[in-house]
From TrEMBL:
This is Fibrinogen C-terminal domain-containing protein. It comes from the Eukaryota. It holds the Pfam family Fibrinogen_C. InterPro entries: Fibrinogen-like_C, Fibrinogen_a/b/g_C_1, Fibrinogen_a/b/g_C_dom, Fibrinogen_C-term_domain. Residues 1-122 form the Fibrinogen C-terminal domain. PROSITE patterns: FIBRINOGEN_C_2. GO terms for cellular component: extracellular space. GO terms for biological process: elastic fiber assembly.
Length: 122
């Protein structure tokens, strides 16, 4: 991930899997290693994938609709929002709708870029 000042970091997890459709595409993530960005994803562990039209988060409202317009494994609503709205760095982190990774910056301030890379373990 990268912020608007050009700083980069990553978060590495040794275990990441997504359940079946019947299980709501439940996230299983563990064994955080590091990478400088902090562990913002473990809070979302064991959550089902939520979208605007399929609310499966732990909040009474719909996190996907309220905070991002994008799907993710929200947990009331959370500390990672890689599918948030792209705000071009024009937010102060107080509106919680941008692309953020809370434990890197200690705020919900929007990031310039973020990506998730997954590989099969043999």
């Amino acid at each position: 991930m990268e912020d608007f000042e050009g700083k980069k970091a990553y978060a590495l997890y040794n275990s990441f899997s997504v359940g079946s459709e019947a299980d709501g595409y439940k996230l299983q993530v563990s064994d955080f290693v590091d990478g400088g960005a902090g562990d913002s994803l473990s809070y979302h562990n064991a959550m089902k994938f939520s979208t605007v039209d399929k609310d499966q988060d732990a909040l009474s409202g719909n996190c996907a609709m309220t905070y991002s317009q994008g799907g993710f494994w929200y947990n009331g609503c959370g500390y990672a929002n890689p599918t948030g709205l792209y705000l071009w760095g024009k937010d102060d982190g107080s509106i919680y709708i941008g692309v953020y990774w809370y434990y890197w910056k200690g705020s919900y301030k929007s990031l310039k870029s973020i990506s998730m890379k997954i590989r099969r373990v043999k």
